[in-house]
Write a structure and sequence with these properties.
Layout: E1 6-11, E2 15-19, E3 32-38, E4 45-55, E5 61-72, E6 78-85, E7 88-95, E8 98-104, E9 108-113, E10 116-128, E11 132-143, E12 149-154, E13 166-169, E14 176-178, E15 190-195
Antiparallel strand pairs: 1-15, 2-12, 3-11, 3-13, 4-10, 4-12, 4-15, 5-8, 5-9, 5-11, 6-7, 13-14
Length: 215
């Protein structure tokens, strides 16, 4: 048996009763969206990513999805977290955007989403990650949606940390950081598990990870 996985990032404790609109009845294919995270501990071979999705629909719908991990492009900067003064957004802090994907998972088919909160568990093939990186999800071929659905907003992380914004790239467009100055906090519900080890970064996994629903 290998080492026991440990939680190196966890933002699933406090749901903000809101979420981003990733899929809808008129939008069966989504942009690539995700959260920049700073990890706790020393384990850096990621073996599992758990994501929380919310659905305002009234029926069970299906979609396909792909997970990616991106490095940070420290040679560039772009507007990131909102700066708030006296309750108003006065500007945005500059932050480095996502760089190339160093891990791209398989296209996961027949993923189901039910009304309310859903949790998906993605098996990651011992992908070595840096202390700070961006995980993303992109959805395709949504069917059966009668309301909007997407990643749920949670804050604050109980393990690791994440600033008040998420990343968005539509059709390969430049990355945009979305932030509303904590109204709501733009952090996405996720948990990351990893093991200690000296593995290599991997580009994909031929095995389709399971997806479990939290009802």
């Amino acid at each position: 048996m290998g080492p026991e996985p440990v939680v190196i990032y966890d933002n699933t404790a406090t749901y903000l009763h809101n979420g981003m609109q990733l899929l809808s009845p008129i939008k069966p294919n989504s942009a690539e969206v995700g959260d920049e995270v700073r990890l706790a501990g020393t384990a850096r071979e990621v073996v599992e990513l758990k994501l929380r999705f919310w659905s305002q629909g009234t029926t069970t719908a299906t979609f396909e999805a792909r997970i990616r991990f991106h490095s940070i492009d420290y040679d560039k900067t772009t507007p990131g977290p909102a700066v708030v003064k006296d309750g108003k957004i006065t500007g945005y802090d500059l932050t480095p955007p996502p760089g190339p994907a160093f891990y791209e998972g398989p296209l996961l088919k027949d993923m189901k989403i039910v009304p309310g909160m859903n949790e998906y568990s993605f098996t990651i093939p011992h992908v070595k990650v840096p202390d700070r990186f961006v995980w993303t999800i992109q959805a395709y071929n949504g069917k059966g949606f009668d309301g909007v659905a997407g990643p749920a907003y949670y804050d604050k992380p109980t393990v690791g940390s994440s600033d008040d914004f998420f990343w968005h790239s539509d059709g390969g467009s430049p990355w945009i950081a979305y932030s509303w100055g904590a109204a709501p906090v733009a952090n996405l519900g996720a948990r990351i598990l990893a093991v200690e080890g000296g593995g290599q970064e991997k580009k994909g996994n031929p095995v389709i990870p399971p997806a479990s629903l939290l009802r």
